[in-house]
Amino acid sequence: QVQLQESGPGLVKPSETLSLTCTVSGGSISSYYWSWIRQPPGKGLEWIGYIYYTGSTNYNPSLKSRVTISRDTSKNQFSLKLNSVTAADTAVYYCARIEAARRYFEYWGQGTLVTVSS
Amino acid sequence: EIVLTQSPGTLSLSPGERATLSCRASPSVSSTYLAWYQQKPGQAPRLLIYGASSRATGIPDRFSGSGSGTDFTLTISRLEPEDFAVYYCQQYDSSPPYTFGQGTKLEIK
User: Fold this and answer.
1) Do A44 and B103 touch (CB under 8 A)?
2) What is the pLDDT along chain A (118 residues), one digit of tens a residue?
């Protein structure tokens, strides 16, 4: 069974960089698409971006200028960096695996709350 | 960009009743790439339906999906207490690849 676990600081200051890591167990990141999704408190889901096992990436145009997703195959992890954060970036951040053919989010991490505040 | 609009925003029903949740796409979406998720408070979303009508592994058969083009429906035939949650539809397309509906909250009447 594939399991995903987010980790990283729960508090980030405005204008700084949010950095999160997703550790995958029960499967290799050297296949499939791997994604980040976020959910502001009390609101809906927003797709941030994904990285393919080849290393290619695709980002939400609304966040593209501030987002980088990378991977470390030796650690079976992938990561999210979001720079120049504001209070609007406060959210629960989820990592997820995308099923390749039908492109749905098949497995999810439990999510981690990141608060942007000074 | 494909916009998904879910209705109603909140649905109040009693256990044992039938629930019908709508997801309208503009412009149209391939049914191959339409999915539904259930989210309970404090939990990650859980995949229910993919390909508009295929149940994910372990999902009870009281959940069913249907539709094509611009109109999709999630039906829960007979509500159990554990079904009261928020439901999201999601589509995959070209740019941006992924969008979600705003959600329907299914609450106990």
Assistant:
1) yes
2) 999 999 999 999 999 999 999 999 999 998 899 999 999 999 999 999 999 999 999 999 999 999 999 999 999 999 999 999 999 999 999 999 999 888 999 999 999 999 999 9
Tell me how many degrees the CA angle B101-B31-B88 measures, rounded to the nearest 5: 20
Cβ of residue A106 closer than 8 Å to a chain B Cβ: yes
B33 to chain A, any CB pair closer than 8 A? The answer is yes
* A69, burial (CB in 10 Å: exposed 0-12, middle 13-18, buried 19+): buried
Mutate to test the interface with B, among A103, A106, A110, A113 (most CBs of B within 10 A): A103
For chains A and B, count residue pairs whose Cβ atoms are closer than 8 Å.
56
- CB burial of B62-85 (b: ≥16 within 10 Å; e: otherwise) equals ebbbebeeeebbbebeebeeebbb
